[in-house]
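> call design_seq(struct)
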């Protein structure tokens, strides 16, 4: 059955690349090639993503810090730009980590369904809604990182799969997490906690969360591409910098002490969430004044 997953993953990858490349060739000529900072963000965030930190929250922090992407384009840019590096991660971890294939396939299917409906909604949201939504989503993610840093996250069990009510709960939860991915809240942290709470081996979370993202991100990203709600330059940087970051982390580093990194991520993500919410408040106050002067 793993062979079937690899075939499906290859088909998803080919379809996504074809759609994105066609869209790039249709893009206005003013879209410039990614610069050093775009590629640097892609390399660093996907390096740590491969080790289980997640890429969405740190990438959003870089975008806000350097002003690389407009707020309303951040969810689409995260999904479009990180898709191909995540596909590479999924091929690696599904191949090398043992997990019950039925559990893996059904949880992946749930995440894809959630992403399809979520992207259709988020891609049409106005700028301030995205600022508020991402602000609170980032605060939620910082809470998850805090649980991990304090070692309060459940330790999990030895099971490599789920059955019955636990499997149904896992699928339902992954539908929700797939929808939240389109808002820019990463799936890795919540999925790892979910897997541990349900008594599975935490290592089994890696193929599940990376496989889920690899299948759902092309689906959600195609809708962002169709709506043109992403930054092409930054997305290309995430992809071009991200692929070597994944390969180095997976084959050369594999494991490293991540405690200090998690604390740094918590501080940066909380700062970014506050900045996002502040931007929403400032723009809301400025809107009546702009309307009055018009």
């Amino acid at each position: 059955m793993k062979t079937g997953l690899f075939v499906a993953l290859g088909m998803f990858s080919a379809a996504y690349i074809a759609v994105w490349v066609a869209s790039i060739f249709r893009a206005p000529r003013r879209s410039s090639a990614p610069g050093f900072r775009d590629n640097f963000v892609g390399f660093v965030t996907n390096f740590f993503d491969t080790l289980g930190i997640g890429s969405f929250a740190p990438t959003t922090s870089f975008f806000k810090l350097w002003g690389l992407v407009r707020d309303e384009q951040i969810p689409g840019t995260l999904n479009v730009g990180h898709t191909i590096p995540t596909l590479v991660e999924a091929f690696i971890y599904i191949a090398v980590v043992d997990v019950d294939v039925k559990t893996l396939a059904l949880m992946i299917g749930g995440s894809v369904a959630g992403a399809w409906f979520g992207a259709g909604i988020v891609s049409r949201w106005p700028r301030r809604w995205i600022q508020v939504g991402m602000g609170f989503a980032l605060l939620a993610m910082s809470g998850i990182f805090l649980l991990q840093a304090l070692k309060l996250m459940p330790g999990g069990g030895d099971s490599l799969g789920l059955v019955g009510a636990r499997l149904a709960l896992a699928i339902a939860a992954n539908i929700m997490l797939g929808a939240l991915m389109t808002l820019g809240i990463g799936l890795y942290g919540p999925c790892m906690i979910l897997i541990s709470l349900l008594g599975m081996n935490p290592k089994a979370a890696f193929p599940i969360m990376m496989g889920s993202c690899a299948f759902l991100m092309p689906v959600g990203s195609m809708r962002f591409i169709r709506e043109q709600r992403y930054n092409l330059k930054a997305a290309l940087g995430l992809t071009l910098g991200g692929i070597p970051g994944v390969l180095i982390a997976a084959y050369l580093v594999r494991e490293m002490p991540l405690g200090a990194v998690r604390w740094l991520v918590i501080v940066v993500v909380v700062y970014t969430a506050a900045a996002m919410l502040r931007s929403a408040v400032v723009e809301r106050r400025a809107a009546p004044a702009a309307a009055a002067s018009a």
